[in-house]
Amino acid sequence: MLMAERLSRLGTENAFEVLAEVNKLVAAGRHIISFALGEPDFDTPENIKQAGIRAILENKTHYGPSAGIPELREAVAAYISRTRGIDVSPDEVVITPGAKPIIFYTIHALVNPGEEVIYPNPGFPIYESVINFVGAKPVPLPLLEERNFSVDVDYLRSLITDKTKLIILNSPQNPTGGMLSKQDLEAIAEIAIENDIWVLSDEVYSRIVYDGEFYSIASIPGMKERTILLDGFSKTYAMTGWRLGYGVVNAQLAQQIARLETNCESCTATFIQYAGVEALNGPQDAVDRMVREFKERRDLIVEGLNNIKGIRCFKPHGSFYVFPNVTEACRNLGLKDSKALQQYLLYNGNVAVLPRTSFGVKNVGEKEEYLRLSYATSKENIIEGLKRIKETIEG
């Protein structure tokens, strides 16, 4: 039977495909060290779990408003107002089952077929996937190693056309760990305002920062009304399986995004939203401990990668990823590209990583090869994984 044509334009998230491959090898008796999946290895803090359990026991298990329960929308509004230095009201908040729906709903709500969306490349693959899905034109914005994987604002300006509808930003960034400076954000804001363009700002790693200071483009005067601020609970509170995220947008767009949610899943699970209230309003000690541990792991993995022949690794400012340049390693091993190296490490070294092409098609003229490693795993695994990579690459 024939499927709808639009499905041919829908991409995927390759981390889950690699995970399936890893699981098959593990089932066959192999011991794999995995740096593939971007998921904190910490448990959800106890106070948050108990809040969710309590909500179930109190029978908070019925339908809720599509935009989210008032208590969580109020908590998010207060949190964003405090951390971004802007005034946010609950009617500018939409709660969703995970942060991904905000990407999906934003692009569907704002972008028509044939219009253009600028997105970071390398970047989270779902951006490009949804842009293609709606029939719009994806316009990649290269993130270059020589700029610490930040944005070349002049190049961004050159990409603007009369069809540009949306610019997507992600800081701290997946997969590179790079961060946008306040100066860069101010320049991007100027471009957005001058050309009347929306900005989707993916800030899911905003609390996982090691060096420098996190800035949101929504905090810049004139930007709150044209910014869709995306955040969630998966990374900060180790709540990936809970599926809880949100968007902060102007009230008019918030109504339309909530209407899309009504059509899609009715609402986000009610008892999970009460856990979200506790996450934002309760103690933050567990988050602080997690970030301290991630920083130690970052330093460990960066030092280890830079001691492997043919690899050089930028020290990321945030998130829990490293994006080492493996061009020389590929050349030394006679491998075509990072995808070939990823397979080589998996089957010869029992180490799972992701190739550059899991994060978008290469930019025009891009010749370097990269891998992404998530250090959301124990120090013991990092040490063992680095040992295996070194032995496999150096022989």
From TrEMBL:
SUPFAM superfamilies from the UniProt entry: PLP-dependent transferases
One GO process term, biological-process aspect: amino acid metabolic process
EC number: 2.6.1.-
Aminotransferase class I/classII large domain sequence ranges: 31-389
Matches recorded under InterPro entries: Aminotransferase_I/II_large (IPR004839), AspAT/PAT-like (IPR050596), NHTrfase_class1_PyrdxlP-BS (IPR004838), PyrdxlP-dep_Trfase (IPR015424), PyrdxlP-dep_Trfase_major (IPR015421), PyrdxlP-dep_Trfase_small (IPR015422)
Cofactor needs: pyridoxal 5'-phosphate
Keyword tags: Aminotransferase, Pyridoxal phosphate, Transferase
MF annotations from Gene Ontology: pyridoxal phosphate binding; transaminase activity
PANTHER family referenced in this protein's UniProt entry, alphabetically: ASPARTATE AMINOTRANSFERASE (PTHR46383:SF1)
UniProt family annotation: Belongs to the class-I pyridoxal-phosphate-dependent aminotransferase family.
Protein name, UniProt field: Aminotransferase
Source species of the chain: Caldanaerobius fijiensis DSM 17918
Organism taxonomic ancestry: Bacteria, Bacillati, Bacillota, Clostridia, Thermoanaerobacterales
